[in-house]
Amino acid sequence: MNAFVALPMGSPVSLQSIFASNPVIRPKLIIDGLGAVVDAPPLALSALSAIPGIAAGTGALPTGLPVPPSLQPWLTAWNRLFNPTFQTALSSRPKKWLAAGTPPAAPAAPPAGPTSTLDGTVAIGLVNVSGPGTAALTPADLVDIGFGLINAINHLTRNAPASAKLVFVVEQQTVTLSVNPATVPAPNGSNSSADIEAREKMWRDPALGAIGQPASFGGITAYRNALLGRTWWGGLHAGKSVVAFITRYNTSISAYAAFGRLVVNLPQTDTFPGRIHIDRVIAHEICHLFDAMDEYAPCNPLATAGPLHVPNGNCILNPLATIGQAPCLMAGTSDDLCTWSRSHLGW
Ligand SMILES: [Zn+2]
Q: 163 CA to middle of ligand 1, Å?
């Protein structure tokens, strides 16, 4: 069963000791070492809930729980999953979440490098990039980011084979820049590399500076290496790392991912495909960082990816997919992954 485990402030126990002494509790997402989404049998969960200093449950946890401020939006996001109004909103979402409009064409695929399979312990350096005026992230945004990550990782861990041993560890940082949002050019309908970079660099480089990293893609690589080099809770070491920037500063399109980082623009996501789909957006972009390809036009059915160099067979421009494209997260038509995308992810 899916459950949330939270350590209230001053708790004498650590997630590390919980996971070490209860091997049947399988973490799926660990947040700053303060909370986790886990998969566990009911008996193990009730034993866990009985330990003083731990809050754990398969449903909503007490709202007044004195968790550290950085965990609060995640706890609120978890609890919202059990709110009947939100449940109705979630369950009434169309399966074809990119069907409501024309998805922006994905940025050109990065040059083929060594393939990176989605397995093992994956570190996410989550950088919430806030700023003055219209760039200010709101408390509601932080809850939506928590929901987006929690449910994205539900989709990915639900689809991954057990042999992938997929676990996500998140280190979150919220930076507040002084960059005036009006100085970042509005989107101009182009998602060329130059147009993406012209907007992103204006807030990304100061954000990297705020977390002690150099500017540009060198800073992203340095931060990813730092995530690989650190020891995570429970003595875990991550074998893979990505950086996720979430912001209200202008970007070329709602969301995109390449070169080890994903970017989600909240106001543009509101416009397309809608904030309620933020988990799907994040899961889709994470998959891009592990070599999965878009399956909507102008995808290339002959492009290959993954450890077995499998073509993009479910691309809508493949004549066979045109008459019967399989539902897939990478086509924007499902929360699950088709066989083709699974092979790209190394599953
Ligand atoms: Zn995409």
A: 26
Residue scoring higher pLDDT (20 or 302)? 302
Contact 244, 124 (CB under 8 A): yes
Range with lowest mean pLDDT among 112-121, 233-242, 249-258: 112-121
Calculate how far, in angstroms, residue 106's C-alpha sits from the geometric centre of ligand 1: 5
Which of these ranges, 73-87, 90-104, 245-259, has the smallest mean pLDDT? 90-104
Cβ atoms < 10 Å from Cβ of 309: 12
Cα–Cα distances in angstroms (integers) from residue 27 to residues 24, 99, 121, 274, in the given order: 10, 33, 10, 29
Instruction: Collect residues with CB below 5 Å from ion ligand 1.
Output: 106, 294
Residue 240 Cα, ligand 1 centroid: separation in angstroms? 20
Which pairing describes strands 35-39 and 55-57: parallel, antiparallel, or unpaired? unpaired
Report the DSSP beta bridge partners of residue 4. Answer: 37, 57
- Mark out the alpha helices in 22-138 (DSSP H runs): 42-49, 72-80, 84-91
Query: Would you call 282 helix, strand, or coil by DSSP?
Result: helix
Per the model's pLDDT, the better-predicted residue between 86 and 21 turns out to be 86
Write down the pLDDT at residue 102: 55
Q: Give the sign of the dihedral formed by CA 248, CA 251, CA 253, CA 256.
A: negative
Query: Against a cut of 0.90, is the pTM above it?
Result: yes
Residue 112 has pLDDT above 60, yes or no: no
Cβ contact 203:247 at 8 Å: yes
Strands, E assignment, 118-215: 121-130, 167-176
Q: Are 101 and 205 in contact (CB under 8 A)?
A: no
Q: How far is it, in rounded angstroms, from Cα 120 to Cα 165?
A: 5
Greatest alpha-carbon pair distance for the chain in Å reads 60
Query: How many angstroms separate the Cα of 121 from the Cα of each of 48, 52, 57, 222?
Result: 23, 28, 24, 19
> Count of residues for the chain?
347
CA 126–ligand 1 middle distance (angstroms): 19
